[in-house]
Structures are given as C-alpha cells and as structure tokens.
Amino acid sequence: MPVRVLLVDDEPLVRAGLRAVLEAQPDIEVAGEAADGAAVIPLVRRLRPDVVAMDVRMPLLDGIEATRALLRTVPDPPKILVVTTFENDEYVYEALRAGADGFLLKRARPAEIVHAVRLIAEGESLLFPASVRQLAAEYGEGGGNRAARAALEHARLTEREGEVLRLMARGLSNAEIAARLVVGTETVKSHVSAVLAKLGARDRTQAVITAYESGFVAPG
Over the stretch 186-197, which tens digit does the pLDDT of each residue have? Predict the structure, then answer.
C-alpha cells in the first residue's frame, strides 16, 4: 500500500511542487490538499492519510494549533510533517512540542522530501536529529522544563531503556541501535515501545523532546 499524504499549505505553488515530487514515487500517493489548518481535521477523517505535510505558518489556523487539534480530536491520527521556510524557528520547535513528528524545509531537494515522508511514515528513526538537537538547545529551557522532568522521573526507565533513549536522541534507527547494543532488532523495538509508553510519548520525536527538556540528554 502506498503512503497516503495530505498537503496543507496556503501557497498553491508549494502544494503543487510537493505534489509533483511525491506523486513521482510509486510508493507515495497524494490523498488531498488544503489551504489552511482549519480544514485538516475533516479532511483527515474523510481521507485517512498516513502523513500530513503541513505548513507551520498559515493565516487562519497555523500548523501548531492544527497539530494540537488533530491529535486531540482524531483517534489514531496520522503522522505530522511540518513544512517550514526557516530551520531555526521557534514555531517549528513549538510544533514538535505540540506533537509533530518532524519538519521539512520548503527549499529541500526532491530526494530529501521523499526521504522525509518515508521516514516519518515508518516511524523508526528521528528526522534531522542534529536540527532537532539545535532547536532543543535554543528553545528547550535548558533541561529545566518541570513537566518534562516529572515525566522522566515518573517513567523510571531501566538502565537499558535510558541507553536506548540516548541513542534515539542521536537519530539512530532501530537497526542501528541493535547493532550498537549487540541485540536483536525486535528487542530494540520492545525497548523503544517501553520508553514511549513510560514517557507517555506518542512517538520517538516526542520522547526525544522530553529527554532534552528534562535534562536527561544534553542537546549541545
């Protein structure tokens, strides 16, 4: 089954460019388009996309609020890929904190766009880990986020789970973590699932944000 993508951007040329790039791939299908975040929820319910590629800045409902609304109201929501003009943007970090799974620059090359959609859909690695680390260093409260620290303390991660979380923050995939720890991939998947469940995180991006904001992992 192809990865179904919903494009959400107030610029028609951006949507057209993304559509052209994605529909050239045999394993990706553009399920629909919207010009504002306010249209996301009804379209997601009707089209059931796997990934929503969504502009972070839109006139009526921006990508941050649209992400919050989508995750709050839609059961089994799709992955959310925030599309942005600027990499080092507080809006991007707020979208990640709100629950977005990753971000993509509008100036990205076609191969990077395709890779981002596939990686987000698979959910087994962190997209642009160095950029996420840089954003966390600038906007992540220097490990002083009380909610994140409380979540980490409440999680009571085992030593191995903590090791897995640190490797996740470095952007390693499940297979790469397995090779590093000399264990099977299924074992790593079990550890990752345990980390997410204990932290109350919907995916590895949210777990890594918690790790940075709690001070468990230093973003520098």
Answer: 999 999 999 999
